[in-house]
Amino acid sequence: MYRLGVLISGRGSNFHSILKSVNSGFITNAEIVVVISNKEDAKGLNIAKENRIDAVFINPKDLSRQDYDKIVADTLIKYRVDFVILAGFMRILSSEFIKTFENRIVNIHPALLPSFRGLHAQRQALEKGVKFSGATVHFVTNELDDGPIVVQSVVPVMDNDTEDSLSKRILKTEHRIYPLAVKLITENRIKIEKNRVICDTEGLDDEFYALNPKEFGR
Ligand code: GRF
Q1: Which tens digits make up the pLDDT trace of 10-56?
Q2: Is the bond leading into 114 cis (omega within 30 degrees of zero)?
Q3: Of the residues 16, 109, 120, 138, which is catalytic?
Q4: Domains of the chain
Q5: Ligand 1: which residues within 6 Å by Cβ?
Q6: How far is the CA of 50 from the centre of ligand 1 (A)?
Q7: How confident is the model at residue 218 (pLDDT cuts 50, 70, 90)?
Q8: Cα 116 to ligand 1 centroid, rounded to whole Å
Q9: Closest-lying ligand 1 atom to the alpha carbon of residue 43
């Protein structure tokens, strides 16, 4: 059974979707052992507590990035975490941290990477006038919002979309693809070949197929 540590900064809805998938048995081979936040008032910390998962606030005040990340890494090691799940963690990780958990950190980004990296991905998509956007779960490397892609989902961008309405449509698919990606990884169904993640999707074809067409209301 793999042990997951989740890093958050706020709402924690992606953390919650993964937790629900663990509890429902969709994710068969992993448990969430700790949730860490850099914000004391992160709502996700309450979700963790309500579900009897250790919720840890680590205050970044007066700490360098390296020192902060070292404390976070030591905490994850103390909890014997195998995979680090970034779920709205609004800090850039140091290269030391990434090395410590090499190929064992995943992130979700609210765009079809490699488009619209960085902050306000949904706003960037609207500003560029793309007709489709979506979400991406990827392994974390030293390049921001880069790294091998595990799962993506696509949503249409409507003419009357606002940043808020597009974000909501994307978030709905985030809650589906993040648990799916965690399932694939923790059931050892993936291998990384150069930049490609090759997935064994046996028994999951419906799940994969549903990811995209369903969002078009078909
Ligand atoms: C999500 O949109 C995710 O893609 C981005 O940050 C947001 C986190 O939302 N990285 P939540 O805290 O999981 O609700």
Answers
A1: 999 999 999 999 999 999 999 999 999 999 999 999 999 999 999 99
A2: yes
A3: 109
A4: 1-102 (3.40.50.170), 107-218 (3.40.50.170)
A5: 8, 10-14, 87-88, 108-110, 171, 174
A6: 20
A7: very low
A8: 15
A9: 12
Cβ atoms within 10 Å of 203's Cβ, excluding its own: 8
- Is pLDDT of 2 > 70? yes
Contact between 102 and 204 (Cβ < 8 Å) = no
> In three state form, how does the secondary structure of the chain look?
CEEEEEEECCCCHHHHHHHHHHHHCCCCCEEEEEEEECCCCCHHHHHHHHCCCEEEECCCCCCCHHHHHHHHHHHHHHCCCCEEEECCCCCCCCHHHHHHCCCCEEEEECCCCCCCCCCCHHHHHHHHCCCEEEEEEEECCCCCCCCCEEEEEEEECCCCCCHHHHHHHHHHHHHHHHHHHHHHHHCCCEEEECCEEEECCCCCHHHHHHHCHHHHCC
Count CB-CB contacts under 10 A for residue 188: 10
- What order do you get walking across the sheet with 149-156 strand by strand? 54-57, 30-37, 2-8, 83-86, 105-109, 132-139, 149-156, 196-199, 190-193
